[in-house]
Amino acid sequence: MHPILKLVVQRIALGLLLLLAVSLLIFAGTEALPGDVAQAILGQSATPEALANLRESLGLNQSAMVRYFNWLGGVLTGDFGVALTNKQDIAQAIGQRLGNTLFLASAAAVISVPLAIILGLVAARYNGRWPDKLISGITLSTISLPEFVAAYFVIYLLTQLFPIFQPVAMVFPGMGFWAKLQAVALPVIVLVLVVLAHMMRMTRAAVLNVMQSAYIETAELKGLAPMAVIWRHALPNAIAPIVSVVVLNLAYLVVGVVVVEVVFGYNALGQYLVDHVAKRDLPVVQAVGLIFAAVYIGLNILADVIAILANPRLRHPK
Amino acid sequence: MNAEFDHLLKSAAKGRISRREFMGRAAAMGVSAAMASTLLASAARAEGPVKGGTLRAGMAGGESTNSLDPALAASEVPFMVNMTWGEMLVDVNAKGEIDYRIAEEVSSNADATEWKFKIRQGVEFHDGKTVTADDVVATLKRHTDEKAQSGALGIVQGISEMIAEGDMVTLKLASGNADLPFLMADYHLIIQPGGGVDNPTAAIGAGPYKVVANEPGVRHVFEKHANYFDSSIAHADSVEILVINDNTARTAALQAGQVHMINRVDPKIVELLKGAPGISIEAVAGRGHYVFIMHCDKAPFDNNDLRMALKLAINRQEMVDKILGGLGSVGNDFPINAAYPLFDSSIPQREYDAAAAAEYYKKSGHDGSPIVLRTAPGAFPGAVEAAQLFQQSAAAAGIPLEVKVEPDDGYWSNVWNVEPFCASYWGGRPVQDQMYSTAYLSTADWNDTKFKNAKFDEILLAARAELDAEKRKAEYSEMANILRDEGGLICPMFNDFVEAKREEVGGWEADPNGELMNGRALVKCWLNA
Predict the structure, then answer these.
(1) Which residue in A41, A45, A89, A277 has the most chain B C-beta atoms within 10 A of its own C-beta, making it the best mutation to test that interface?
(2) Interface of B with A in 231-270 (CB under 8 A)
(3) I want to staple B410 with a disulfide (CB 3.0 to 4.6 A). Which of A35, A52, A220, A223 is the partner?
(4) A50 Cα to chain B: minimum distance (Å)
(5) Residue B329 pLDDT > 70, yes or no?
(6) Under an 8 A CB cutoff, do A265 and B242 touch?
(7) Tell me, what's the pLDDT at A43?
């Protein structure tokens, strides 16, 4: 087997093992939540009889071990069960929400990743001069703004002052691609503002780091233009740290944007998870938790593999 | 009024000129803004409803966990959803009277132990079946089944026998209840085909709109039920509820015209929103109230002098001004206000009296250790600030309160009805009996003040079967006095429903029974073109 293929297979196997461990942690964590699902569903309207009835019909009287293995068995066959609270099929509900999450994340990524890398390269090229300071200044201020403040600002600017977009960004099945893009415009703008700085700064730092090397000096001495030096010689050698930061931000765009979802009423996974945590709807919390973990682990494996492929020393191990 | 003003009024009512323009021109003619506004509202009503279009509401109070099973409705959006597709036997209208819906006639025997509901002929469910007396009985029976976990269990439990015979439903009660028709207007008791036993979440009802898309926590879409029995309402072709829990986003959606009406406007922004073009704020006095509750059976609250000290140590007017932004009214330590039928307005208002509070506190012999008051941001809007105000006013009377802020998460399971002193809220009920029976009867499940008073119980049961309104009113007054002077309820304020709508919405009326016209705003309003 080719060493790289072996490495990839190894990583994936490790990832799966990690996912199994995470599933156990998620299950234990949801068990440890205070209060119970029956009480949370009935809320202020709970009566002792209603509580006892609900607990029984939800199967909360079984032991945690039994429930864990039942759950794991279901997950492995693609069956997440039904939500305790409204009896909707979880896999189906998550499928749609996950689609929305990925749609928003991709839209934000397609804009922010190239933009961040280009800005990072420009900043590195003009290191210490005004373009560098301007780019760093702007992106650092947008990342310093809490997401919801940025969101309210964007809402005010683009729906009230200049009514170009709609403040509520819900998307529905049956909406066309362009209609969807238009609906998510505001959250995309906010997310781009939030993730830009991190990736931009990392690109700049990694490239500047490489710029100290002897071969860059050689490239400069042979008369290459500064941008060409960066593009041809610095960037390929700085790819590994950049990719890991990009992937970290992609993962954030998938699992960490619940605040933005809430502010724009965007119907994606984060809001879905939070609602079900509040109601102690454990099967849903576990399912969404597992999906988020899988996204994180999967993207990190991807980052590893890209870093290996980009690095000749790792590509040709002795 | 002169002809010019008349013409202006008609144009505005028909929507030819905007409300803002109308108000401006009316002012130029020397008509006061309040007067012009009232005239416009009645003129718009006289113009009559406009049919068609899509009416949208943006609402807080929906979660992705919501179910379509009417028995389980517990928050605002499911309530509104049910009121849009469902129909009960009767409804309580804005004046507090019974509106006949699936039942077209209601009568009782002399001691109110047997009630007959005549079922309206030819009412059709969304699936084309006709509503029968059997469907009604099956529905009520389902709610009595504890497995259904119905929020109306307490209501239907008191019915000992249900009989369907032809087009007549007879309900026999264990003890007389003059308010039974009001209880049948409970929003959980939506009539479903076969009682909804086979599929409680099917959302097949006899209401004005059919469910087209149900995405809990996101949106609910409805289209008109073509064979709906009441042609006087359900004007829009389709209606939608968008769940927008974030206050700012909800307001922005209204301003941008993405929705036509919203519930729960934050009192803090009411003044700002009033200046926005095309938007009107509707503050409706309701029966909901924000409370601090003490467990009468736990030290130190088992001492009535201490309870009285705390009741005197709260500044009610300050709460209404600062917590409700003036959009509400002061409470009087019993859960009833003028929005209820048979309310006794002669009961003296309890005022903040630091000196008297200090005296009662001394008399109670309390050891002076801080009394812990638990609250949470979600106990009611402004609950943390209200507890702090209470702490300040009590401190002025020498009563040490310690405010403990609890997390929202788990508040209703770990604090409310568990800890002896905490902040809470009540939504109110259509009639006094139901409010008292739900939370102040010794045996009530939700007796969250652990108030147990034999005399109170006795009067409550006597009043329930009393058909003479005068006698009933006297009995309710006596109960109010007992609760006010001995109960564990500190009721500083009744909150208005604060809502907002766009000017193109016609047919709006203030309804004290519940938010957004008691959940019927989408059904009863229309869109002026």
Answers:
(1) A45
(2) 242-246, 248-249, 252-253, 255-256, 258-259
(3) A35
(4) 6
(5) yes
(6) yes
(7) 60
pLDDT digits 0-9 by tens, A299-309: 988 888 888 88
ipTM score for this prediction:
0.76
Tokens at B188, concatenated: 């959980």
Q: Which two structure tokens, joined as six digits, stand for A158? A: 């683009």
Does A44 score more than 70 pLDDT? Answer: no
Instruction: Establish, for the pair of chains A and B, how many residue pairs have beta carbons separated by less than 8 Å.
Output: 129
pTM of the model: 0.82
| Region for B427 from its dihedrals, namely left if φ exceeds 0, alpha if ψ lies in -120 to 50, beta otherwise | alpha
User: A17-26 pLDDT, tens per residue?
Assistant: 999 999 989 8
Q: What is the spatial distance between Cα A45 and Cα B75, in angstroms, rounded to a whole number?
A: 11
Asked if B201's CB is within 8 angstroms of A271's CB, the reply is: no
CB contact under 8 A, A272 and B147: no
CB contact under 8 Å between B256 and A272, yes or no, is no
Q: How far is CA A97 from CA A91, A195, B8, B217, in A?
A: 10, 22, 50, 12
What is the Cα–Cα distance from B249 to A190, expressed in whole angstroms? 14
| Token reading at B488 | 């564990």
Alpha helices, DSSP H only, in A212-268?
Answer: 214-221, 226-229, 235-255, 258-263
The residues facing B289 across adjacent strands are B426, B494
B202 touches chain A (CB under 8 A): no
Q: What is the pLDDT of residue A234?
A: 86
Cα of B253 to nearest chain A Cα, Å: 6
Tokens representing A55? Answer: 């607990």
Angle at A209 between CA A208 and CA A215, to 5 degrees: 95
Judge if the upstream peptide bond of residue B300 is cis by omega within 30 degrees of 0: yes
